[in-house]
Structures are given as C-alpha cells and as structure tokens.
Specification:
mainly beta; elongated; four-stranded antiparallel β-sheet
C-alpha cells in the first residue's frame, strides 16, 4: 500500500539584476527553507514534496559622477600637430556605501568612436549641425594616463573598511588630424560598471 502526499508548488530560484546608469552584478546568499508536517506517519514508500526558495541579489554601490564635463573654448590654432590636445579636465567617479562583499569595481566607457582615430570618442554634433570638425574626445585615467578608449576597462579598488573607492579621469579634446574647424563639440559616453 503506497500513499502519495499532495504536491505543493515547485521550488523557485529568483535572480535580480539592476540596470541603471551603471550595470551591477554580484551574488549574496541563498536561503534554504523546508517544512515537513510532524503529525503524519510515514512508511518506507511515502513520497514527500517540499519547497526550496531563495534570492540572488546583486551587490552594488552608490555611484556619483558629473552629469556634464565642461572642456572649455579653444581656437583652431591651439591644435598645430596631429594628436594635439586641450588642457586636462579632471573628473571623479566615486563609489560609496558598497555591499560589504565587494572588493572592486571594473569601469569602462562606451560611445561612438571617431572615424579617424579609434582611441577617441567622436564629436556628436555633425559639421552640418554646426559641430567642430577634426576634434574628438580623449579620456585617460589621471593616475597612470591609461587611455580609456571605447570598451577599455580599468579596476577600482573598493576599500574593505570604508566600503568605498574612487577613480579620477582626465577628459580633453584632441585632434586626430591637424586641421580642426570651428564649431560646437559634444560627445556622449556611457559609464559601465561591473562589481566583483
């Protein structure tokens, strides 16, 4: 004689990832929950169903960064040679209130690449729209002048005691050629962050 216990809904495992200005990925804990009725008698052939539930959530930080970085106003004669650039304009990306399990953030910028120099980001304003020609955006790390071309990543250490970290970048206009034309300049890039 075999008795099948009524089935309960199957187990579930949920994973949540948060996407905003930055992309966040990390794992925390899995909770195992099981309950068996104690009042029922079981024999060696009973089938017992139980549920397993849990959550995997992404570790994260609060990220602060400037919405706009002003590069200034220059003359075409400020760019004499190929690769000449404007003054360095530093800006900081800060990570605070990070999940305690996180030890680093990997950052990368993505955007439209200049048609002449793939290490630079393009001017988003066309010549027909009044944009400056033969100028592009160059991004570097301030500490070691690591060139942050499209998709190039750099690690930021998140301190275990403060659960925080920061990195300073340099933005500047540069000429892929040596013949910039007058006009407006605007380059839109996306900051991507992966947590570990």
């Amino acid at each position: 004689y075999q008795r099948d216990m009524p089935s309960r809904p199957g187990g579930s495992l949920m994973s949540r990832f948060h996407f905003a200005t930055v992309r966040r990925m990390a794992a925390t804990s899995l909770l195992f929950v099981a309950g068996l009725p104690s009042a029922l008698a079981y024999n060696t052939q009973d089938v017992i169903n139980f549920s397993v539930t849990g959550n995997i959530v992404a570790g994260s930080c609060n990220v602060s960064y400037p919405a706009t970085v002003e590069l200034g106003t220059y003359l075409p004669t400020d760019f004499i040679n190929e690769g000449d650039s404007t003054d360095n304009v530093p800006f900081t990306v800060s990570f605070t209130n990070c999940s305690p399990s996180l030890t680093k953030a990997t950052v990368a910028f993505t955007g439209a690449v200049d048609g002449t120099q793939p290490f630079y980001f393009a001017n988003g304003i066309t010549a027909e729209g009044g944009g400056a020609t033969d100028v592009a955006l160059e991004l570097l790390t301030d500490a070691d002048h690591w060139q942050m071309s499209n998709g190039q990543s750099h690690d930021v250490t998140l301190e275990s005691d403060s659960h925080a970290g920061e990195i300073i970048f340099i933005a500047r206009m540069a000429t892929p050629g040596h013949n910039p034309g007058t006009g407006e300049f605007q380059s839109v890039v996306t900051l991507n962050v992966v947590y570990n």
